[in-house]
Structure formats: C-alpha cells, structure tokens
Amino acid sequence: MRVLRIILPLSMAISAAHLAGAQQQSSGQTYSGQLSRQTPAPSQREILPRGLESLRQDASSKTEFTLDHSMLVLASKLDPNNEDLRRVIAGVSGISVHDFRYAGSWSYEPESLDSIREEYRAAGWMRMANKHDKNGEGRVTDVWIRMRNNAISNVAILAARPREVDFVVVSGSISPVDIAHLGGHFGIPNIEGGIEVPNTRR
Questions:
Q1: Across the beta sheet with 92-101, what order do the strands follow?
Q2: Is residue 23 part of a domain?
Q3: What is the dihedral of CA 182, 185, 191, 193, to 10 degrees?
Q4: Domain presence at residue 188
C-alpha cells in the first residue's frame, strides 16, 4: 500500500509535467551555467550546474521534469492521508528532477560529479551530507543547502550509483525534517539517517 501511495502522486505529477513540457522548453526555465551565490528571484530561470550536462550526454536513458507548486499540490491530492507530505509541499515552490541511467557500470565521468560539488562549494552552498553505502554497492549521496534569513531556501541532492545518477533541486521554505518527508516522493531519493543543519542563530 505504501508503494501505491508513492507511485500514484509521482505518476500524476509526471503527467502534469509532460503537459507543460512544451511551455518549459520554449521559456527556458532551466539551463546549465555558473551557479550564483545569490538566491534567484522566482521569475528567473533555474540555473543548473554545468557538470550536469556531461552526465546527461553520457546517459543511455534520461528522465527529467520540473514540477511547480501547483503541480505538486495536484499530485499530493492523490495521497490524501499523508498530512506530512501536504504540509511540506505548502512551502515548496518547485522541484527539478534529473535521472540518468547508464549502459555500463561507471560509464560516466566521475569528474562530472566533482565538478558539480565544486560549483556548489564555490557558490557558497553548505554541504550537509556526504554519505557512502555501507554494503559496498558504491552509492554516494551528497546534499547541499542554501540558507536565507536563517532558513533553508534551496536544497540540492546528488545520488550516484554505478549505473544511475539522480540529481534533484528543491526550492522553497523547508526544514531538515521536511527533506526527510520528501524522500521517496517525486523522484527524490531517500536519505538514510537524514541530515543535520547547524544552528545559524547567534
């Protein structure tokens, strides 16, 4: 039953994203470029790290979509019993998902992952997690956050496996607990153990 609750909202959201796909492509809502230290205005295009383009080119299959707030609200209505998810979505303005799969193990350039990490570091994002699989499968999960007025304004998640790379950007006013609730929904990978955010209050 839990699997159904996850799949239904995701399927509905992806359908909504496909309907808006032509508009997104023509308006150029996302593009690869230099990350900025400043939080972009809602009307500005989302800037993705340049290293993502190399991962995209090497992939044998790609799933990419962007969900705005209205799409997320629509998808959450298919999971009416999940109060936590609806509460979190209320503060999320958008989610951008990029899922790349590869024909062979480690057939993508590891330098592309390092490039993404360096771009977020240089742009002043805080790296909150760098988790490695304990079972030897080679999965690595990185989590970065951008703070504004002592609150999280953006989250970037990079999950790399031998044959798959997931990159997700969440925009909006959220908390560390909110990130945990989003895991497993809308293409966002689960982050085992959650993340700890330092107290930025003086």
A1: 61-68, 92-101, 164-174, 151-161, 140-148, 126-132
A2: yes
A3: 60
A4: no
Within a domain: 192: no
Contact between residue 179 and residue 170 where contact means Cβ atoms under 8 Å apart: yes
Domain interval for residue 69 = 2-33+45-182
How many domains does the chain fold into? 1
Alpha-carbon gap, residue 51 to 69, rounded angstroms: 26
Residue 197 is which amino acid? V
Residue 93 lies in a domain: yes
- Distance CA(43)–CA(52), nearest Å, equals 22
Per-residue confidence (pLDDT) for residue 7, from 0 to 100: 39
- β-partners of residue 171 are 94, 154
The tens digit of pLDDT for each residue in 82-106 reads 888 888 888 899 999 999 999 999 8
CB 93 within 8 A of CB 68: yes
Q: What is the DSSP letter of 157?
A: E
The per-residue pLDDT for 117 is 93
Instruction: Let me know: does 142 contact 127? Beta carbons within 8 Å.
Output: yes
10-33 pLDDT, tens digit each? 444 444 444 444 334 333 344 455
Could you tell me the pTM of the whole model? 0.73
Q: Is the dihedral of CA 19, 56, 8, 158 positive or negative?
A: negative
pLDDT tens per residue, range 115-140: 999 999 999 999 887 666 555 566 78
